[in-house]
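Entry:
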Amino acid sequence: MKFGICTTVEKSAAARDAGWDFIEESVQALLQALEPDERWTGRERAASAALPILSANMLVPASLRITGPDVAKERLAAYMRIVLRRADALDTRTLVFGAGGARNVPDGFPRITAAEQITEFVRTSAAVAGDYGVTIVIEPLNRGECNIINSVSEAMKYVAAVGHPNLKCLVDSYHFWMEDEPLEELRTAMPSIRHVHVADKTGRTPPGESGQSDYRPFFAVLKEGGYDGLISVEAKSFDVASSGRRVLNFLRKQWDAA
């Protein structure tokens, strides 16, 4: 089990000093797939990191549509090939497909068509990901942030439809709780859960910081399913230097008690 933080390379030393195992960077900041190789700075930034960058989120920018009438399939595919090639070069093996802005279904656009577009995107991306040894995990987002793929069970429909070993599912405690998803849905999905995000439901604060956090039932399902992968804190207003060690100790205690 490894605990990490969604943060920047520049804050990785503070995360290391607080005892964390890894960081999760942004695809946009680290892999910069809209930039040509000669302007890519991610390799140098990664080399300066105090912790390994085992995962990256924000897979696709909102300007590069995945759903709707303006999808540029060839441009999107070329973008993903660059992302996956650079992730492999940095040994970043898990990429998070949240991308709410890029996948959000435009008003009036048929949802069934949008679902088909997402399926095509993840199918073609997973095939390339397999070539590079990278896993793409689909992240359910709450309906306040995106209007499609709002639950673990919905994300699992795409995983099942594609059936590729390099396409799996993520569960984020914040989105999971915001959508009031039953733990049974997570239990059913456990064979395909390959990444976890955590944050308190109240204010999306770091775990334990809102005073209203009990991760033990959530963690118990992960443990029942044999989960032994990455758990990243994706929270707002997380000052790693001042509260990083306290948050990590809270998570470890909750995991052990689950």
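Residues 193 and 206 are 22 Å apart (CA to CA).
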